């Protein structure tokens, strides 16, 4: 504790970050003639899912969205199994024209079968952005799409977006981004990690960011998003550390031809295995984001770079209590931002459905 | 051992089962003007993947298919990481019109990211049948599709097939079925589990089948296939036992309204939680199929129903050495059948591509 700063870093809770999106969503809603309707599908007796469903309802009602909670399986009747009827409920909501958005309270069956269910949700109603098409666009840095492409084959080659502007070109709309990674990006924008003086699509240039977790729901899409926005991202999981970047890599070896000759960065991130240890990644990271679902996993404060920004995304606390002795900013949770990303997606999808 | 039959059950290896498909594939190939070309994508240094790639090559060359092995990542160069470049290799093969089928040697990154990659393979070239669209059709008992639907939205509702004939109606083709579950079904047909006197689509009626494993790659699609074909399937995994059936359930409780009033079976299977134990499932099962990836997992021979048929799908042996003391037929492996299912799918997809 002898090296601790005399002054602690800022603690930023999600509320002030969420506030700007609450206003944005409220204003957009006020201009609509038809209230968007969200259906939540609850198929298990899981307490966190149940309380998240109640939280969704409360937020929707407060803001003026229609919300219907559809229970099925064990959530509807003790005689039914966990998850019973959930696929049928999704298909019914896909086909119901009065419904504009669908959210399913996962986990239900486990990662594999849940992933199957995520593909059953129509991409036109997928407020969580979990459909393969949206992941594909994200990984390929395809930011603007024709709404019709949500009907088309995902295997159609589309060029990554060369960005000049934040606004979609005529005839296109923004692709939907998965809620949790997007909430993290918005939190980083709020804390100044994204530099708005830089051109859109490259505003994280110059930042080194460690992301601990490489799941398909949070860590990997987040690493890709940040790298597509210009950051150098160290993606850490149990087995390996990878570097996500769209620029030529910083060469430890000057004979590396790539870094010497490449003049321009790739239109989307590429991934390299890294030789760095977690300790070494943390030592050079301006931002550390952790989403490890374990109550015992803790990032050592002493390993952090002085003045870095730390974001905890796990339901457990992945940072030590004294994290603000090193971090300039610490965000302990982003869930309250995530719900607004979901409602923003709902507003967009309602528009896309009209095309 | 006092209750063991004096005569052991039959040991049936995959070769005689594969033989009929070898002939079928050879004949179909002889009638084509253009040799189908399969590309195998190997992105890891995994020894089983490497030897499976060599096995694919050998089978293709022997039968007269063109086979190209594309190596990438650690399989191509020790300087590259496991899986590097695999998505790009898939996209290139999707776009290459000279290639009719793509197979990717999994596992690469682990279940979640591998599932993402399975969606990147164009369904028109997905010889393994791992694309979501094929799984969706399988789970919904949609056997015949318009080839164009492979381009369309997966969320479009399609009615399950009411079967009168094995032949697709005009303008439709058969949906692709994942190779391993299909190889198991074909092995059951070979051993007489499917009764060809019964109408197509209901030939497993009257059979009770236990399937141990409920992964999205083998166990769950297999349980659905068998139940859609009329069987009563007990689907067993670590956490739970479920019953897959398209008929009203056998009621233990005569007040169960469903079994008393339903006159006709569902067009596709439905799933119920089961109260039976594994022991009880095995005691009533005519067929036991096991795919548990563990060298220590063993099904107790004494629990098997006398005269049942046992199929081992795992790379480890899930049955005890004395399994044939109880089983009338034991199939220790189906891998040699699976490769022919893959080549049959290749021949079909080549046709679908021409539509």
Automatic annotation (TrEMBL), chains A, B:
Q: Which InterPro entries match?
A: Aminoacid_DH-like_N_sf, m-THF_DH_NAD-bd, NAD(P)-bd_dom_sf, THF_DH/CycHdrlase_cat_dom, THF_DH/CycHdrlase_NAD-bd_dom
The record ties this protein, via Gene3D superfamilies, to:
Leucine Dehydrogenase, chain A, domain 1, NAD(P)-binding Rossmann-like Domain
Q: Which GO terms describe its biological process?
A: purine nucleobase biosynthetic process
Family annotation (Pfam families): THF_DHG_CYH, THF_DHG_CYH_C
Q: Would you tell me the Gene Ontology cellular component terms?
A: cytosol
MF GO annotations:
methylenetetrahydrofolate dehydrogenase (NAD+) activity; methylenetetrahydrofolate dehydrogenase (NADP+) activity
Kindly indicate where the leader peptide sits in this chain.
Answer: none
Q: Which residues form the Tetrahydrofolate dehydrogenase/cyclohydrolase NAD(P)-binding domain?
A: 178-240
Domain spans labelled Tetrahydrofolate dehydrogenase/cyclohydrolase catalytic = 12-128
Record's superkingdom? Eukaryota
What is the name of the protein in this document?
Methylenetetrahydrofolate dehydrogenase
What species does this protein belong to? Answer: Hebeloma cylindrosporum
